[in-house]
Amino acid sequence: MSGKSIRVWIGAAVSLAAALMSGCGSGDESAPESNEPANAPTPAAGRAPRAGDVLVNSIGMKLAYVPPGKFMMGSPADEPGRHKDETRHPVTITNGFYIGVTEVTQAQYRAVMGFNPSETKGDDLPVSKVSWHNATAFCKKLSRAGGRTYRLPTEAEWEYACRAGAAGPFAGSGRIDEMGWHMDNSDERPHPVARKSPNAWGLVDMHGNAMEWCADWCRRDLGAAPATDPASPAAGKQRVARGGSWGHFARACRSAARASYNPAYQLRHLGLRVVMETDSSRPGTSAK
């Protein structure tokens, strides 16, 4: 079998695995400059935060403000690559929150947890091989150290932040090669964060690079009914993961694409991005 054939076979296997799980069923490389907004706005004293305002926390993590609002969650029936569990429906997010501008990096994870589980090492690479349990432990430790409450985003919060007002498969420019690292442009390896274009709220790498845990137990389908601050099912077997990764085909990196995994799994493409609550933010699912 030729090298090209092997790569196609591996790609198909990864894509098939992502499809089956959908719906619950090196740091020294030469790279372009960071695409984080060079002059990201910061909240001015005495005014409410605005979309895209950035704070920097105690470990140097940048977090951008996501305002309350409404959006259409899921995908239309004619979206290429969609799965049947992505039923489109209106969702209202009633409270604003801050969310990591990028995935948690290996340097940030090590600063809080004292170790780096990632297979491919690099301080500016997204941390990976993180179980859902360790992801929530990271949030708890960061909360204690920083004096603010950190948690994983709910599935609805994640998609709302990813879209940043965009309705198509990919946010920002709408072109996946500009927005994220996926199987066909990543050389099938992770890349330093913030090397792709940000979405309208300044968030980077929501499409591809490392897939990201969410707080929720996975529900079989999103449902068609309007929802306000949709919560996780009370119980389940698998936790939601969003965003696709460097090891997935582009269709698995869409804003609406859903995947789920056993919360104990530590997979080489799976990491996290955190939410920092504001005083009015509704808490996410309890980490039990």
List keywords for this structure.
single chain, paralog of FGE (formylglycine-generating enzyme), 19% helix, five-stranded antiparallel beta sheet, 288 residues, alpha+beta, four-stranded mixed beta sheet
Overview of this protein structure:
- The chain is of the alpha+beta class.
- The chain has one domain: Alpha-Beta Complex (paralog of FGE (formylglycine-generating enzyme)).
- The chain contains five helices and 14 strands.
- A five-stranded antiparallel β-sheet has the order 1-2-5-14-6.
What's the CATH superfamily, by name? paralog of FGE (formylglycine-generating enzyme)
Q: What sort of overall outline do the alpha carbons produce when their principal axes are compared?
A: globular
Reading the helices and strands in chain order gives HEEEEEHHEHHEEEEEEEE
Strand order of the largest sheet: 1-2-5-14-6
The first-level CATH class name: Alpha Beta
Distance linking N and C termini: 46 Å
Number of helices: 5
Low-confidence stretches: 1-22, 25-32, 282-288
Strand content: 15-25%
The helix content, as a percent range, equals 10-25%
> Main β-sheet: number of strands, strand sense, barrel status?
5 strands, antiparallel
Strand tally: 14
Rg value = 17 Å
Overall mean pLDDT stands at 87
The number of domains: 1
Structure class: alpha+beta
| CATH architecture grouping | Alpha-Beta Complex
List the SSEs and their pairings:
Elements: H1 3-21, E1 54-56, E2 62-66, E3 69-73, E4 89-93, E5 97-100, H2 106-113, H3 132-146, E6 150-151, H4 155-163, H5 176-179, E7 180-181, E8 207-208, E9 211-217, E10 227-228, E11 239-242, E12 258-261, E13 270-271, E14 275-277
Parallel strand pairs: 4-10, 7-8, 9-13
Antiparallel strand pairs: 1-2, 2-5, 3-4, 5-14, 6-14, 9-11, 11-12
